[in-house]
Design a protein that fits this description.
Structural class: alpha/beta
Shape: elongated
Strand content: 15-25%
InterPro entries: Glyco_trans_2-like, Glycosyltransf_2, Nucleotide-diphossugar_trans
CATH class of the largest domain: Alpha Beta
CATH topology of the largest domain: Spore Coat Polysaccharide Biosynthesis Protein SpsA, Chain A
Number of domains: 3
């Protein structure tokens, strides 16, 4: 069977729906900006998607002068005044609290400084009529000046003059290049979430609820974070180039880049493990681990486990939460430190039990652990990788994760000559499997692919200078594509230098 990388394939010939049936809630959270809001509502009034299926909710998040609804607006438009209080203000709180009461089939979130081509919403909705697992992004261009009023804008849009509104505009080169490189996010890889921006995106209401909405702890960057969760849950992000729009003026990030990054980087790195370059700048603990790991530590020494852990976390900026499986109850029996038959197990427990990175879970001394049992133990969320290992299996778990990414399978495993096993699983595969009525393992196998190797085959893939050079060249090619500015070139050179020092010269 042939598989698409990361299994985010989608139709490429969808047409606008002739007889739409899904209702949509248009959500605009804003603070001040009455003039731009009037233009936004005028462009929404000109949308071709049926007005009977469209409701617009303007959330006034503490404007200095209360917002009002203008004359030119969609038929079903409601103004919601969100009462601010300490710890309860801003886009994330206002949006989450107000959207929780909405019952429309689809939610379309837009910024309050956008002008939309009349079929913009209809292009979003064709995807949601096709399937319920899409998160759809519109296409936008930025404009510096505009002189039209709401009535003029509405008439121009109805007259088919959207393209003629602005003769000069610009896009975000880095964003557009990322979209192009990923085949419009059909092949998003792990950095595809960075293409998720909130100026115009839509998803099914029930998917929004499953995700839990925005992260309320974030004041800005909330779209990037929910884009990461969309990826790890296995939803398909679509960039529709036909859903065109004008963005009125510069974005907040463009105007205040340094301040925004200073504010956002630590907050986002707490919950997005893929931001390991930010995480690598410190030795702080992070809220969401890079790896969720279950390890069978029966008949294992502390040094064997610590070596396994060290190999997995060799890349700066990565961390893990380990659940150690063993018959821990046996340690409650009377014993003598001299001749203790459970000395190895006791040493593991006594050293690690006070560290929050580790949890101890009871299994029977002679239990055979089925793969399905392990899969059911994983707590699916924002962690990108899920790993199981029998601690005595002699493989580098970081190499196993690398092989998972290279293979583009959902699960990659190794079994040694004594039938001791280890496997790594990528989050989107687990997220999709959890929705299936089939067993988790069969679902991962059929939807994403499963590949098992013996330890000799795995060793061949991860030994020798030729193979290491090939892997290094793949890394250079992958990371080099991200360079789109002199600053990014400097960052790229620093990363390569650090990698060479660590791998070749053995320096920290």
């Amino acid at each position: 069977m042939s598989y698409q990388p990361y299994r985010f394939s989608r139709p490429n010939d969808l047409s606008l729906v002739a007889r739409p049936k899904l209702s949509v809630a248009v959500v605009i959270a804003c603070r001040d900006g009455q003039e731009k809001l009037d233009l936004v509502l005028a462009s929404l009034a000109a949308q071709n998607y049926p007005s009977a299926l469209t409701s617009v909710y303007v959330i006034d998040d503490g404007s200095a002068k209360a917002l009002v609804l203008p004359k030119v607006k969609p038929v079903k438009t409601k103004l919601i005044s969100y009462k601010n209080s300490p710890g309860k203000w801003g886009k994330t709180a206002a949006t989450n609290d107000c959207v929780a009461r909405l019952r429309e089939d689809v939610l379309w979130f837009i910024d309050a400084d956008m002008i939309f081509e009349p079929n913009h919403l209809a292009h979003h909705m064709k995807w949601h009529h096709d399937n319920d697992d899409y998160a759809v992004l519109g296409w936008k261009r930025f404009v510096k000046n505009w002189s039209y009023h709401p009535e003029d804008l509405y008439a121009a849009l109805k007259g088919g003059a959207f393209e003629q509104l602005h003769s000069e505009s610009w896009g975000k080169d880095l964003w557009e290049d990322r979209v192009r490189r990923t085949n419009d996010l059909v092949n998003p890889a792990l950095d595809g979430y960075r293409a998720f921006v909130g100026a115009t995106f839509s998803m099914r209401n029930d998917r929004w609820r499953e995700l839990g909405g925005y992260n309320r702890n974030l004041v800005t960057g909330e779209d990037t974070e929910i884009g990461w969760r969309i990826f790890t849950h296995g939803l398909r992000t679509v960039v529709d180039r036909s859903a065109n729009s004008w963005h009125l003026g510069y974005s907040t990030v463009e105007s205040n880049k340094d301040q925004i990054h200073r504010h956002n980087d630590p907050s986002l790195a707490q919950v997005i493990p893929q931001m390991h370059s930010v995480r690598a700048k410190s030795n702080f603990a992070w809220s969401v681990p890079t790896y969720q790991v279950f390890v069978d530590v029966r008949q294992t020494t502390l040094s064997q486990f610590i070596e396994m852990r060290s190999q997995l976390l060799a890349l700066p900026g990565t961390n893990a939460h380990f659940t150690l499986l063993a018959p821990w109850k046996l340690l409650s029996k009377r014993y003598s430190p001299v001749g203790d038959i459970y000395a190895d197990l006791r040493e593991i427990r006594n050293w690690l039990q006070g560290d929050s990175q580790y949890a101890l879970e009871e299994i029977d001394e002679s239990a055979e652990i089925a793969i399905e049992t392990i899969l059911e133990k994983f707590s699916h969320g924002s962690t990108p990788y899920y790993i199981f290992a029998e601690a005595r299996v002699n493989i580098d778990l970081k190499d196993l994760v690398d092989q998972l990414l290279v293979s583009e399978q959902g699960l990659v495993g190794v079994a040694d000559k004594f039938d001791r096993r280890a496997f790594a699983l990528i989050a989107p595969a687990l997220g999709r499997a959890l929705e299936s009525d089939d067993s988790l393992y069969r679902s991962i196998s059929s939807q994403w692919g499963v590949h098992w190797m013996n330890d000799d085959q795995f060793a061949v893939l991860n030994q020798g200078k030729h193979n290491r050079l090939r892997r290094f060249m793949r890394y250079l090619k992958r990371e080099g594509k991200k360079v789109n500015s002199p600053l990014q070139l400097v960052i790229f050179i620093k990363k390569i230098t650090s990698l060479l020092l660590r791998k070749v010269l053995g320096r920290g």
